[in-house]
Structure formats: C-alpha cells, structure tokens
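Weekly structure sync, notes
Attendees: PL, DS, HV (note-taker this week)

Item 1: Homoserine O-acetyltransferase
DS walked through the input record. Source organism listed as Olivibacter domesticus. Sequence as pasted into the shared doc:
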Amino acid sequence: MSIHTFNYNKTFKLESGKRLKGLNIAYHTYGRLNTRKDNVIWVCHALTANADVFDWWPGLFGEKDLFNPHEHFIVCANIIGSHYGTTSPLSINPATGLPYYLAFPTFSIRDLAVAHELLAEHLGIHKIKVLTGGSLGGQQAMEWAIMHPERMENLILLATNAQHSPWGVAFNESQRLAISADRTFYANKPNGGAKGLKVARSIALLSYRTYETYGATQLETSDEKQDDFKASSYQNYQGEKLVKRFNAYSYWFLSKAMDGHNVGRGRNGAPNALKKIKAKTLVIGITSDILFPEEEQKFLTKHIPGAKFISIDSFYGHDGFLIETKQISKEISSFLKQVYPNKQAISLQPLI
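Item 1 (cont.): predicted structure, written out as tokens:
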C-alpha cells in the first residue's frame, strides 16, 4: 500500500464553466500493475471517506479479501473537494494566497469522474477490470462508465442512483442548514462551522440507519430513565467523531455535488444515458436502505444493458453496503464467475 499525489498543473475546467488552476489528486494504490495492465480494480469512495479503501471497506478489500493486492492493482483516489489531500476548500487559492473556504468553485459528480480519468491516464491505465463504488462513489463510477464506456470491463454499483432524489436532497439541505446556522462557518478558518457539522452528521445518521437499527442498538434497559438516553449519546459521539476528521466546507460542497447528480443532464434523460454503459454491470441494493431505496437500483438495472440486480438483506440500512461485506463478496464473486467462467485474469474467491 502506498499513497501518492498526482499534480495536474494545467487548468482544470469544471462542468459549471469555472476553473481550478492546478489540481492535486491524492490516491492510494495496492499491489502491482501486471505487464498486460489488465488487473486494475478502481474504487470510488463515498461522501466522507478517503483513498485508503483497506481502512473503510475491510472484508471486501484487504490482504485476504476478494479484492486483494496479491492479484490485483487496486486504485482509490481522493475526490475533489474532500478533506484528505486532494484540492479542496481548505487548499490555497493561488489568486489570493489564502485558503478557498466558501470561495471554492462549485463542482459536480461529473467533475469527479473527469479527475479519475486524468489520474488513470497519468498511471497509464487504459482498461479497468472492475470499477466499483457505493452511494456517492457509485454516482462517480456510473458517470465515468457513461463518459468512457470502452475503458470499463465490469461495473459494480452499490446503494446508488441515476439521479439524486428529492428525499436525498432534503436530507442534505437540512444538514447544510445546520452548518450555516453556525456563524463560525463564515469566519474563514479551518474549523469554521464545526458545531454545525456535528449537527449535520447527526441528521445524516438518521438516513444511514433505520428505526429498527436504533431500536436494537440504542434501546434503554430501564423503564425509569428520563434523560441521558443511549440514542442521544450515540448522536453526539458520531457528530464529534466526524468533526475530528473532516471539515464543514468540504461537507458543504460535496453534499451540493451529490444533490446535482443526474446522469440524464444533457443526455436526453437518464434512460438514454445509462444505455451508453458497455461494462458488464452488477447493481446491488440494500433491502433496508431508506436513503437510496432499492427502486433506484432497479431503475439502473432496467436501463443499463444486460445489468443484473442483487438484493442484500441487511439490518443496517444504507450503511449495509459498507457492513455486509460477506454477502457482497459472495455476490460479486458469483457475478464475476459468470463473466470469467475460466477465471481469466481475475481471482474470484477470497484467499484463505
């Protein structure tokens, strides 16, 4: 495992028409690119994750997991606007010599996909064996597979959608309202909006899990309790945990990018856009996901040529795509066995 930074010194034109002068992309690689350059597994990460996929997706990616560095060259790049090394609102604006903060240019999911394409070209990768991502990561993977259909052999989309829903936008807007209610957000300092970010994370958790999840994990054992509930403590803890590792400005802009996700924009609608995908595609939905319900994954399956849909039963709601790695590994392995019946160029079983 190693972490690198790709410095794109040219002007990066965003979908909005705005420009970034210079773009740094932080990325992790695991394993080695083989001589045929056909063992690439590319991972697109979700909202507040980072490029170290072995850290946040264990069970699917790891030394003894389905996607392992002994057989594959695994790449995961930190996305534009994120907190972990790629150009973001905390980066220095060359026009002012100060951090961008709220002056950071608006970007889209398509811009994130273009950045992945630039990195792939830099790495000399012309074919990706498996491109995958969940949630916002799935949105990126989908856009990239539409823009460059010949590059992708297999596409695995988890708990994601073709267009972000009004329900999803409403959750994100509620989180931004919490951030903007914190007056320090406008103070232009690295920890600006920290209290608002804590509240935003608390709101987000309600969409990541379910009524049943909270009922089982945060239920009180005493009938006499009237305050200091487990659920209250949990929300506070998770909010503080994010504040310690992320920033409100990145969260603000990334949630805006998610809201604007619509593969049909400029392509005569989502169905026509999805038809452009040529990769063999597996779409995975989570039964209890209220943020990206399975009807959204079924829509993808209907319009991506030859796509297969699999439903994963999970107690954990949207977070199931990160937690149910045993089930997910089994389904991906089964899918790839059908694609490569002779196990050509890819391992189909986790190492023992």
